[in-house]
Design a protein that fits this description.
The complex is a heterodimer of chains A (about 425) and B (about 250). Chain A is mainly α and about 425 residues long. Chain A has 16 helices and two strands. The N terminus of chain B is likely disordered. Classes of the chains: A mainly alpha (about 425), B mainly alpha (about 250).
């Protein structure tokens, strides 16, 4: 099948390139005319927002790396130098630091969208799993990035988290020594974390590419959670969703700017403006806010290994979610019980987040145990059982029937109306 | 029932606490102050910051460094180029002479503030093992910010009945554990202000806190000014984008 691509572009230069490497045809197909369900709500902005956030992080990160010194005696001061001497260095650093928080806000909402509208269900299981991998990579990258300023929380956070691996029998201690590059968190640790913090975002770009490629095979889910039945159910991506995403991007930039310019340290921890000191342990070592729910799960188990396993399981359970949820109906809109339970799960995660930020004592331990138990109960027991017993509401015939006042005209032949996809 | 009540109480507490403010143990409340530099349009009170620089120079700088700051930063609190040059020139900074031997030369605006001690060990040796911390980012390094520093400076008193203070320690109601190694640094009239302001402990504490807030965030005024422009622009852009979206979608709804 070798030979020049038959390009439809008029412009001779574009045509010349496109015949030899049809990237313009591809862009036109995937982002121009790409058929997209016509009924997206603003929750469908968050994939695009995450993409933009990743680009912002890489762009600011590259310029920060030009001015940062990865050495335990110089890292803290080099960050302050960025804040004071590098032209617009404070802007670069505050955008990057708050960008990490914005990234997690955006991705958590993106995941909630997936959970609420059942976007993980067949045929989008692999798309969802790639998303879970993206979240894991994000967490690793964010954790290592937080170590780089070499403040007190950087140092002690790194100590606590890397020490988790020592819980594994036999190999644990060796893994920790290997991670540290020595026998405590020290200069070699900082150097390898800097190297990996630079590398992982590009791995992230690769997995994001796969995530989007998989999305463009299955097509997007939509608020009704029913399949696209024909052209009357879709709109071309451009201009309809390019402009709708643009509205979301503007609002997202406003929230981002309010943090960067008016509360740049609100989401951070004051202790990280104290240079790392291996001899002084902070009164309370807490991770960044986006790790707090996982930190609460970790600490809810009295046994170290148990806590570590449960923490990893809390993400692992998401990866197998497409097979745990037995309901054939995707959207929570037609699942009256799930529609309530999903909010209980959100509340459960918020409670875990609050507990993770509190000292592990008294009521906070009790609360985090209850919330941890419920988190796993939701995925491992409630979802498999609920799918079998829940009386779901009748699904609309098609997207266009449901959202257009005219009903969108007759369905094309063959796509017989299936008002109850679930028997 | 007790458990339920506890859960309810915890939930109520949790709602009112931002995730970042995760203090614990005995919580010390710092009385909130009104600062010229707080709020989205806040700026540093130049006169106060200049008086604060005087307090830092005459009192704090005997023990505490602000090693991240440069003499040229003083222009940001309203001192002229000439004044900054004179302040820097009055300080001798370590240098290496042409013969390769350690020497000293007159400071320049581009020099960092000279630290009172050559290194941490020298400072600890002079202070019975305690280390007077660098104050460059102190305002950002305490969860209570400017209020906390101000409270600490005015918080010295005799220990209340029944509280004994360790040898070489001082009672301070705003310091964690209430025992601090720093002797009360300020007393009424400790400095003489050129502008005639009465140098009470409260006044000096307020002034030096303003100065250190500036030293911690010399970019703050630029940041907030730019922020106002950026947010106004984005609001306008959001309006335009939303109007465009309405127009594009008009034919499919």
């Amino acid at each position: 099948m070798a030979g020049l691509h038959k390009s439809e572009f008029e412009n001779p230069v574009i045509r010349w390139v496109d015949s030899r490497l049809p990237i313009f045809t591809m862009l036109q197909k995937e982002y121009g005319v790409f058929p997209t369900p016509r009924n997206f709500n603003y929750f469908w902005n968050f994939g695009a927002l995450a993409m933009i956030n990743l680009v912002i992080m890489i762009a600011t990160g590259i310029f920060l790396a030009m001015n940062y010194t990865a050495h335990k005696d110089m890292a803290f001061d080099s960050v302050e130098r960025i804040m004071r001497d590098v032209n617009w260095g404070w802007l670069l650093r505050y955008v990057h630091a708050n960008g990490a928080s914005m990234f997690f806000i955006v991705v958590y909402i993106h995941m909630f969208r997936g959970l609420y509208y059942g976007s993980y269900k067949t045929p989008r299981e692999l798309l969802w799993i790639l998303g879970v991998i993206i979240m894991l990579l994000m967490m690793a990258t964010a954790f290592m990035g937080y170590v780089l300023p070499w403040g007190q929380m950087s140092y002690w956070g790194a100590t606590v988290i890397t020490n988790l691996f020592s819980a594994f029998p036999l190999v644990g201690e060796h893994i920790v020594t290997w991670l540290w590059g020595g026998f405590s968190v020290d200069n070699p640790t900082l150097n390898r974390f800097f190297s990996l913090h630079f590398l992982l975002p590009f791995v992230l770009v690769g997995v994001v590419f796969l995530h989007i490629a998989a999305l463009h095979i299955t097509g997007s889910n939509n608020p009704l959670g029913i399949d696209v039945k024909g052209p009357q159910d879709t709109l071309p991506f451009h201009p309809y969703y390019t402009i709708k995403d643009s509205v979301g991007i503007c609002v997202y930039f406003i929230v981002f700017a309010l943090f960067v310019f008016f509360a740049p340290n609100y989401l951070g921890h004051a202790d990280n403006y104290i240079p790392a000191n291996p001899l002084v342990t902070p009164a309370h070592i807490v991770p960044e806010w986006y790790f707090l729910p996982f930190y609460a799960i970790l600490r809810s188990v009295p046994d170290k290994l148990g806590g570590v396993l449960l923490m990893f399981a809390s993400i692992g359970v998401l990866a197998v979610l497409p097979w745990l949820d037995t309901s054939p109906v995707r959207s929570a809109r037609f699942r009256p019980v799930y529609r309530i339970l999903i909010w209980v799960l959100v509340l459960c995660c918020v409670v875990l987040g609050v507990c993770g930020g509190k000292p592990a004592e008294g009521i906070w331990v009790v609360l985090s145990r209850i919330a941890t138990a419920y988190y796993f109960l939701h995925f491992l027991v409630i979802l498999p059982v609920l799918g079998k017993f829940e009386r779901t509401l009748p699904l609309p015939e098609s997207i266009s029937r449901a959202v257009l006042p005219t009903g969108g005209g007759p369905l094309p032949g063959g796509a017989a109306a299936k008002p109850m996809e679930k028997a | 029932m007790k458990l339920l009540r506890n859960i309810a109480a915890a939930a109520l507490l949790a709602l009112g606490t931002p995730a970042a403010a995760l203090a614990a143990g005995e919580e010390i409340k710092f009385p909130p102050q009104i600062w010229s530099f707080s709020g989205p349009f806040g700026t540093f009170d130049r006169a106060s910051a200049q008086r604060g620089f005087q307090v830092y120079s005459e009192v704090c700088s005997a023990c505490h460094a602000v090693k991240q700051a440069y003499y040229r930063d003083l222009k940001g609190i309203g001192l002229s180029e000439k004044e900054v040059e004179a302040i820097a020139a009055a300080v001798m900074v370590p240098a290496i002479g042409d013969d390769g031997a350690a020497t000293e030369r007159k400071g320049m605006p581009s020099d960092r503030f000279r630290s009172p001690y050559a290194n941490e060990k020298a400072a600890r040796a002079a202070f019975n093992g305690a280390y007077p911390p660098d104050l460059s980012v102190m305002i950002k390094a305490r969860s209570g910010g400017a209020d906390q520093l101000y409270s600490l400076l005015i918080g010295y008193s005799d220990p209340p009945a029944g509280v004994t203070v360790g040898d070489g320690m001082y009672y301070n109601k705003y310091y964690a554990g209430h025992q601090i190694a720093m002797a009360p640094p300020l007393a009424d009239g400790r400095v003489t202000y050129a502008d005639g302001t009465r140098a009470s402990v409260e006044q000096m504490s307020r002034d030096v806190t303003t100065f250190l807030a500036y030293i911690a965030e010399p970019e703050m005024e630029t940041r907030k000014r730019l922020g106002v422009k950026v947010v106004l622009f984005l609001l306008f852009l959001t309006g335009l984008t939303y109007a465009t979206k309405r127009k594009v979608w008009a034919d499919v709804h």
